[in-house]
Amino acid sequence: MNQELLTDTFVDLADTMVADFDVIDFLHMLTDRSVQLFAASAAGVVLADPRGELRVAAASSEKAGLLELFQLQNDQGPCLECFRTGRPVTAADLADQAQRWPRFAHAALQAGFRTVEALPMRLRDQVIGALNLFRAEPGAFEPADLRIAQALADVATIGLLHERNVRRRDTVAEQLQAALNSRVVIEQAKGKLAERRGIDMDRAFTMLREYARNSNQHLTDVARDFVIRGTAEFPPPARRRPGS
Amino acid sequence: MPPRAEREVGGDDAGRVARVWGLVSAHAASRLGRASVADVCAAAATGVDVSGAWVTAGDGINPGQAMYATDVVGESLAEVQITLGEGPCHDAAVSGAPVLAANLADGSGNEWAVFAEAAVRAGAAAVFAFPLRIGAIRVGVLGLYRDKEGPLDTLRLGNALILADIATMLLLDAEARQADDPLFVAPPASQSPGLAAHHAEIAQATGMLTEQLGVGITEAFARLRAYAYVQDRRLSDIAHDIVTRRLRLEPDPPG
Fold first, then answer.
1. Looking at residue A166, what is its pLDDT?
2. Is the pLDDT of residue A152 over 80?
3. How many whole angstroms separate alpha carbon B196 and alpha carbon B180?
4. What angle do CA A218, A205, A135 make, to 5 degrees?
5. Which of A55, A126, A139, B107 has the most CB atoms less than 10 A away?
């Protein structure tokens, strides 16, 4: 465990939550840092939509194979189990889990993952989603790492449901829907930018995120403005030297 | 304490969306018409267990326009928010997130003192506002009211969200029909609105089409759906082909 990175992560999460922040950007920070801290190959956050699905809110990579793994878990898999029980779900080697989750285990192995962990995002008795960690090598995550990962998931839950005003309303549902729609706005913006610049979705996402950081705006606002007006002047992508 | 949401999420989305669509279609069939927002409002009474419903069309920037209400209470709740420029529907239209005011008389209407007073006088104890939107596409708000206070449970909240997805598609269809777009063919009801609203590749492909076709996001989505319908292929498959750059759509020829 990189102690310095861990300290930085909690400081950054706390800093973010003190200020007005973008929920999707915040959850992306969580997935990126989870990958670094726990030597994971990939990480993602799924949220429970009352329409009846678990939906990806953030993932450490936009690769299709990884996104499909979250989608698949609407039928079976650690996130669904974790969501239903409210408890962490571990599979130290997916090669042994063909009976438990036939389709999920197969797809995860295909995508290059051997180990999976799902940690609940809980608010009192309500489970709002899960933090999902993947590793390419077999072997369970360290118990000490999982305690820290759970703490990160708990902080993220609080951040996600962070209320700007104290109101007597059902803000959990309101905030979750706002987060899920933000994700759609960002996907639309990624598509527009990827097409305009001839770049892939991952790169488009990074550019949107950097633009939001550099201009001190919310990622969702940048994405919405770009989709509606299409005028954002993105800094040109870094030129690659021939042969590099 | 066991988690509450068991069996309410996961595994059955398609079936659930189909059931809610069934409610809307049944109302449309009973008046021998094409499904419209009126049927969504009628379906809300059974599927969400509310006293009444209304739909306001608008982009969240300009003041909206009342489209339909199930009763006079709904009508006045819609009108008063447009007139005052405040209230849960107004906030939902601007923010793009639902606003659930489960007890207007006791605190949850504090932000809109004038609206809350008018709403209670009209006979509403709770108002729930659902934006009609898919990402940056915004077409209006579905408003629901109850004459008794109290929150929507998870199941009813889910049904209300699905009804909002359906109303979004119906308003988008109506808009395209009104614009008399020769390329537009209204897709059949069987194209799951839940899927259309939440599939990442559909959203990405819609964004890509704004550039390929040189149109706004709302029209790009109409074109995507129309293309899938004409080709008789699933929206998600067409979106996948666009995102993987195996398919490009061409802009209209000039003239």
1. 42
2. yes
3. 23
4. 110
5. A55
Chain A residues within 8 A of B2 when measuring between CB atoms: 86, 125
Q: Which residues contact A169 (CB under 8 A, 6 or more apart)?
A: B99, B100, B101, B102, B108
| Contact residues, B window 166-225, toward A, CB-based 8 Å cutoff | 194, 197-198, 200, 203-212, 216-217
Asked if residue B18 has pLDDT above 90, the reply is no
Q: Which pLDDT does position A62 carry in this prediction?
A: 76
Which of B9, B194, B204 is nearest residue A54 as measured by Cβ atoms? B9
> What is the residue-wise DSSP string for B41-66?
HHHHHHHT--SEEEEEE--SSS--EE
For residue B188, the tally of other CB atoms under 10 A from its CB is 7
- The C-alpha atoms of residue B50 and residue B150 are separated, in whole angstroms, by 11
Contact A48 B9 (CB under 8 A): yes
Q: Which residue has the tokens 């405040």?
A: B86
For residue B190, what pLDDT band results from cuts at 50, 70 and 90?
A: very low
Q: Among residues 88-127 of chain B, which lie with CB inside 8 Å of chain A?
A: 95-103, 106-108, 110-111
Euclidean distance between CA atoms A162 and B25, whole angstroms: 39
Beta strand segments in chain A, E: 42-49, 53-59, 89-91, 115-123, 126-135
Q: Give B69's strand partners.
A: B54
Going by C-alpha positions, the residue among B23, B60, B35 that lies closest to residue B173 is B35
Per-residue pLDDT, averaged over A4-33, amounts to 88
Give the residue, A161 or A28, on which the prediction is more confident.
A28
Give me the pLDDT at residue B1, please.
39
Query: Between chain A and chain B, how many beta carbons pairs sit less than 8 Å apart?
Result: 168
* Strands of B52-57's sheet in order across: B65-69, B52-57, B137-146, B126-134, B99-101
The one-letter amino acid at A91: A
- The pair of three-digit structure tokens given for residue A150, joined into one six-digit string: 């759970």
